[in-house]
Design goal:
- The protein is α+β, with helices and mostly antiparallel strands and 181 residues long.
- The chain has two domains: 75 residues, Double Stranded RNA Binding Domain (2-Layer Sandwich); 91 residues, no CATH class.
- Helices cover 52% and strands 20% of the residues.
- The chain has seven helices and seven strands.
- The strands form two sheets. Strands 1, 2, 3, 4 and 5 form a five-stranded mixed sheet that branches. A two-stranded antiparallel sheet has the order 6-7.
- It is elongated, with a radius of gyration of 22 Å.
């Protein structure tokens, strides 16, 4: 049984302050207590700086006890600063990031490693309907870079980008294709 641990938390891309994070943690801990019929307590913020913030929590049951220090690595100031930029600038830099992901092959490695995460990554672009059509551009790029994959990917791309279907990107018509590098 783990008696003590130190957890480093790197949050998502939302401007959550340490105080908000502790409250979010307390709400989740309350659900945890009810689900598993255990006891727990959480301290107030112990330390907060521009870089990190920490608090402690304890949870215990009939024959165990765990003490945890949570350290939130902060970047809420960066997220807030980024959100102050104009929409056109943000869209331009987002398009550059997408282009970089495709050209460097990172997008294809995402598909090979976890196609659902690749869909999560591409979802905002799909919803925004940028000036170019991903449904048309990606198969052509695939055809150039990975000819063996081109037919299968072109056939399944609309369903893949729809995210509501369960398309295995590495299995086309029963033929097992090698995973992307």
């Amino acid at each position: 049984m783990i008696g003590r641990r130190h957890v480093f938390h790197i949050g998502g891309y939302d401007p959550i302050t340490p105080e908000q994070q502790v409250e979010r943690f307390r709400r989740s801990l309350s659900a945890f207590k009810k689900t598993w019929n255990v006891s727990s307590q959480t301290s107030a913020l112990l330390d907060s700086s521009d870089v990190s913030a920490s608090w402690q929590s304890q949870a215990w049951g009939p024959n165990w006890k765990t003490e945890t220090t949570f350290e939130m690595l902060r970047w809420d100031d960066l997220v807030l600063r980024e959100s102050q930029r104009g929409m056109l600038s943000r869209l331009y830099h987002s398009a550059l990031a997408l282009f970089d992901f495709v050209v460097t092959g990172t997008w294809f490695r995402y598909i090979g490693a976890n196609w659902k995460y690749a869909g999560f990554f591409i979802f905002p672009y799909k919803k925004m309907r940028l000036p170019f059509s991903l449904e048309r551009a990606l198969p052509h790029l695939f055809k150039l870079l990975f000819p063996a994959w081109a037919l299968c990917f072109h056939e399944h791309l609309p369903a893949f980008l729809d995210l509501r279907t369960n398309v295995a990107a590495h299995n086309c018509k029963g033929i097992q294709l090698p995973l992307l590098p």
